[in-house]
Amino acid sequence: MNEKIRPQHVDVDEVISNAKGRVWGALEKKVVLGVDVLIRSSEDDVNIGISEFENGDYQSAASCMVDGAVNLLLVAICFQRMANAVPAKSAMN
User: What is the pTM of this model?
Assistant: First the structure.
């Protein structure tokens, strides 16, 4: 994976729009999110995405990478929720 690519605005808009819709979709389900599950899933998505890329299926590779990114965004949102709701360990001592 040595390619050098200059993404265009349309590429960024497409990926961000897709990820944003999926993050909101996951949050609207109002389920409790397991951070460990999301992290493992994102790792799996990235590995599958690399495999798809190497096989020449760039659309599938992009989709897998968006899946991984969405999961990591959900982890970041969970961590932010904890940061806003739970005092830091150092403040509890």
Answer: 0.80
